[in-house]
Amino acid sequence: MKLTAEMTAVDAARQVLPRSAEKFFKRGRKALQKGDAETLHEFRISAKRFRYALEIFQPLYGPQFRKKLSQLKKLQDLLGRLNDLATARVVLENRPGAVPLTNFLDREEKEVREKFETYWKEQMDAADSEARWIRYLTQYAGQRGRSTVTRPASE
């Protein structure tokens, strides 16, 4: 289905965001598998675009949505730190006296990379995470402020 002028924002969110989530998870897995600076940088940009798309539709979702954005922001922070370290390495390349700094960058990169890998595996891409994201983005568009718990009619 294509986006049309007749669609509501809810319809658009239900169409756009689940596909964006699929691309995000696919690129994240590729970045984790390859692990090189260029692929991680591409994933960082992809994560940023995904977050921006989510933020556009934020008013359509309830409080749980902020938690999802927060998860994504933490991931972006780790990817940004890895990109900063890769950039610093390029700047220091072939500079006299840079060995102590490159040694520091090596240690820092190893630590941040481990944090990224752990966070990705445990928080973002744990069992069924992608399916839960897609289900949430599809089912809860337009449910802002509504509880996910069914209440008896007498309340």
In short:
With 155 residues, this protein is mostly helical.
Task: Please render the helix and strand layout as text.
Blueprint (H helix, E strand, L loop, with lengths): L8 H26 L2 H21 L6 H29 L6 H26 L4 H11 L16
Helix pairs in contact: 1-2, 1-5, 2-3, 3-4
Description:
This protein is 73% helix and 0% strand. The chain has 155 residues and is mainly α. The chain has a single domain (9-139), classed as Alpha solenoid (CHAD domain), CATH 1.40.20. The model is unreliable at 147-155 (pLDDT under 50).
Structural Rg: 19 Å
The CATH H-level homologous superfamily: CHAD domain
Q: Report the top-level CATH class.
A: Mainly Alpha
Helix content: over 70%
Mean pLDDT across the residues is 90
Q: What string gives the helices and strands in order?
A: HHHHH
Q: End-to-end distance, in Å?
A: 39 Å
Count of DSSP-assigned helices: 5
Low-confidence stretches: 147-155
| Proportion of residues in β-strands | under 5%
The biggest sheet amounts to:
none
Secondary structure class reads mainly alpha
Described by the principal axes of the CA atoms, the overall outline is elongated
The CATH architecture can be named as: Alpha solenoid
What name does the CATH topology carry? Answer: CHAD domain
Number of strands: 0
> How many individual domains?
1
